[in-house]
C-alpha cells in the first residue's frame, strides 16, 4: 500500500469528474497519479472538504463523520484496494472499542470522508501501477487542472442546498 494525498478534483476529456490521488513525497510532475471517476455530488463534497468550508446543511459525508464520532469510533484509514472491470473498490477501517472494523465502500465516498476525518488514504501498489498516469500529464506549474470555476460551482451547490424543496425529489 502507498499513502496518497488528494491533489484535487478535475474533469476529464469526457466531462466526467475525477479525483486525483498522488503518492505522498513524490515531487511535482514526477511519478504517477491515480484518477478515479466519481459522481458530481461526490466531487463537490470532496471540493468542499478540500477547501475547509462548511456547507450550509450537512452533506452525506458530514453525516457519516458525525455518526462515526457519535458512536465513539474514528476513521483509521481508507484503502483503495483493487480495480475490477474498470470499477475501483475501497475499504474504510474504523477504530472502535471492540477493535478495528473494516467496511466495503466506494472510493469516492471514502476519500470525501477521509478528508473530513483527517484520515490517511492508501492505494494498493498493483492498482497504482496498473492504473496510474504520469504526473506530468495532470500537474502543471503547481496547479491541478481543477474543475472550471471551482468557486462558482461551490457557490451554486450551496445555493441549491439552501433552496432545495423535498418535493423536487418525489416520483
Describe the model.
There is one protein chain. By secondary structure, the protein is of the alpha+beta class. The protein has one domain (2-166): Roll (Bifunctional nuclease domain), CATH 3.10.690. Helix content is 32%, strand content 36%. The protein has 5 helices and 10 strands. It has helices spanning 40-51, 60-70, 107-117, 125-131, 150-163; strands at residues 2-11, 17-23, 32-38, 74-84, 87-96, 99-105, 121-123, 133-134, 139-140, 143-144. The strands form 2 sheets. It has an 8-stranded mixed β-sheet. The protein has a two-stranded antiparallel sheet with strand order 9-10. Helix 1 (40-51) packs parallel to helix 3 and helix 2 (60-70) packs across helix 3 (107-117). The protein starts with a strand and ends in an 8-residue tail after the last helix. The relative contact order is 0.22. Residues 141-150 have low confidence and may be disordered. InterPro entries: BFN_sf, Bi_nuclease_dom. One of its GO terms (molecular function) is nuclease activity.
CATH architectural group: Roll
Give the uncertain stretches in residue-range form: 141-150
Number of strands: 10
C-alpha Rg, in Å?
16 Å
> Average pLDDT value?
84
Strand content: 35-45%
String of helices and strands: EEEHHEEEHEHEEEH
The biggest beta sheet reads:
8 strands, mixed
Structural class: alpha+beta
**Number of domain modules:** 1
Kindly report the spatial arrangement of strands forming the biggest sheet: 6-5-4-7-1-2-3-8
Q: Which quaternary structure do these chains form? A: single chain
Shape: globular
Helix content: 25-40%
Determine the CATH topology.
Answer: Bifunctional nuclease domain
**Head-to-tail CA distance between termini:** 44 Å
Q: Could you name the CATH homologous superfamily?
A: Bifunctional nuclease domain
User: CATH class, please?
Assistant: Alpha Beta
Total DSSP helices: 5
Amino acid at each position: 500500500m502507498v499513502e496518497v494525498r488528494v491533489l484535487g478534483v478535475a474533469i476529464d476529456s469526457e466531462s466526467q469528474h475525477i479525483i486525483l490521488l498522488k503518492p505522498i513525497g513524490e515531487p511535482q510532475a514526477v511519478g504517477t497519479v491515480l484518477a478515479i471517476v466519481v459522481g458530481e455530488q461526490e466531487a463537490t463534497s470532496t471540493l468542499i472538504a478540500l477547501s475547509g468550508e462548511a456547507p450550509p446543511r450537512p452533506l452525506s459525508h458530514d453525516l457519516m463523520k458525525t455518526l462515526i464520532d457519535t458512536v465513539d469510533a474514528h476513521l483509521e484509514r481508507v484503502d483503495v484496494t483493487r480495480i475490477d472491470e474498470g470499477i475501483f473498490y475501497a475499504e474504510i477501517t474504523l477504530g472502535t472499542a471492540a477493535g478495528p472494523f473494516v467496511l466495503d465502500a466506494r472510493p469516492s465516498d471514502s476519500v470525501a470522508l477521509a478528508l473530513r476525518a483527517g484520515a490517511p488514504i492508501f492505494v494498493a501498489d498493483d492498482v497504482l501501477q496498473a492504473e496510474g498516469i504520469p504526473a506530468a500529464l495532470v500537474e502543471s506549474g503547481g496547479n491541478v487542472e481543477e474543475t472550471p470555476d471551482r468557486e462558482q460551482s461551490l457557490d451554486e451547490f450551496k445555493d441549491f442546498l439552501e433552496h432545495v424543496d423535498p418535493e423536487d425529489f418525489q416520483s
